[in-house]
């Protein structure tokens, strides 16, 4: 189906026919399986599971999927994509909404197939007609950004609200960004924070980063630097790249001179943020500005801390694998 100019009219009557995905057993099962596979370093299989956990609305599924997509080689990502295309194509042709959504993701990202926003949008739209919740959210994203369809901020806001009411944390976060920017609504920082708070409480790492930074600097709320740092660190645990840079900014803020002003902490997070393309230049600029405030030997200290953090993460992965093994054994009795 070609993208049509009256697409808004096609999706006006949309209703959520699928139960709230935050309660979806499928989403939970796929996420737990993926975390177990990640713990055993079967990253390709884990990536595949995280694609499904995101499809079924697990709040950590999207972050896990995107994180592993960056960790795998391009060839590995393409291999998983091709396997999924073979797996879901027949079901998608039969109208299965989850399969349509997965196929949409593959076209959207160009995983295992040539990237095509138009074909992705068509897959999402067909799933929307069946009330599939995450496709409602993705159609809103396409309308918000004008991807293969005319940009329509008002309609994207309507669809985000439908998804948010059904429990999609990413939709809650995106509504918050509309109130920050005054996009389709008047600028309202308090309402923005309310939406970020809802999304953050549903484990959305982007919202945790947004709200944490705003709480640290008191944007739309009374400053709460400790809570701001706590939320940003939660976002970092999900390896959301912008949170590393924001933490570096918070620790380098001289207005917080005292326990929270720490050039070495700022340098640690800025150094980590440089791994991510979208914040690399800003992080490098901040790190250069900090150099005069850092003690001698700071680079070695940061390298040692990064190595220690890697060991902690590995132990956590192993612990998840053991818990999953115990759960699987328990099912046999």
From TrEMBL:
<dbReference type="InterPro" id="IPR011990">
    <property type="entry name" value="TPR-like_helical_dom_sf"/>
</dbReference>
<protein>
    <submittedName>
        <fullName>Uncharacterized protein</fullName>
    </submittedName>
</protein>
<dbReference type="Pfam" id="PF08238">
    <property type="entry name" value="Sel1"/>
</dbReference>
<dbReference type="InterPro" id="IPR052945">
    <property type="entry name" value="Mitotic_Regulator"/>
</dbReference>
<dbReference type="InterPro" id="IPR006597">
    <property type="entry name" value="Sel1-like"/>
</dbReference>
């Amino acid at each position: 189906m070609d993208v049509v100019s009256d697409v808004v009219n096609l999706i006006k009557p949309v209703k959520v026919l699928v139960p709230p995905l935050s309660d979806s057993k499928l989403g939970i099962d796929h996420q737990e399986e993926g975390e177990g596979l990640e713990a055993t370093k079967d990253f390709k299989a884990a990536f595949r599971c995280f694609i499904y956990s995101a499809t079924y609305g697990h709040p950590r599924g999207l972050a896990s999927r995107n994180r592993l997509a960056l960790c795998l080689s391009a060839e590995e990502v393409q291999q998983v994509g091709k396997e999924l295309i073979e797996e879901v194509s027949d079901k998608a042709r039969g109208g299965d909404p989850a399969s349509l959504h997965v196929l949409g993701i593959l076209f959207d990202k160009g995983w295992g197939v040539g990237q095509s926003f138009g074909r992705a949008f068509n897959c999402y739209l067909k799933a929307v007609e069946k009330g599939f919740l995450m496709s409602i959210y993705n159609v809103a994203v396409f309308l918000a950004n004008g991807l293969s369809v005319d940009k329509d901020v008002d309609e994207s806001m309507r669809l985000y609200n439908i998804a948010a009411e059904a429990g999609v944390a990413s939709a809650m976060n995106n509504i918050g960004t509309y109130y920050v920017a005054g996009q389709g609504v008047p600028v309202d920082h308090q309402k923005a924070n309310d939406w970020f708070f809802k999304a953050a409480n549903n484990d959305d790492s982007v919202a945790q980063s947004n709200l944490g930074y705003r709480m640290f600097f008191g944007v739309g709320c009374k400053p709460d630097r400790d809570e701001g740092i706590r939320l940003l660190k939660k976002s970092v645990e999900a390896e959301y790249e912008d949170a590393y840079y924001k933490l570096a900014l918070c620790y380098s803020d001289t207005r917080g001179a005292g326990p929270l002003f720490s050039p070495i902490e700022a340098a640690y997070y800025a150094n980590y943020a440089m791994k991510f393309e979208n914040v690399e230049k800003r992080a490098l600029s901040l790190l250069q500005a900090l150099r005069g405030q850092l003690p001698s030997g700071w680079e070695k200290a940061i390298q040692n801390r990064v190595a220690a953090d890697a060991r902690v993460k590995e132990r956590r992965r192993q612990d998840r694998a053991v818990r999953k093994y115990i759960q699987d054994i328990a099912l046999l009795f």
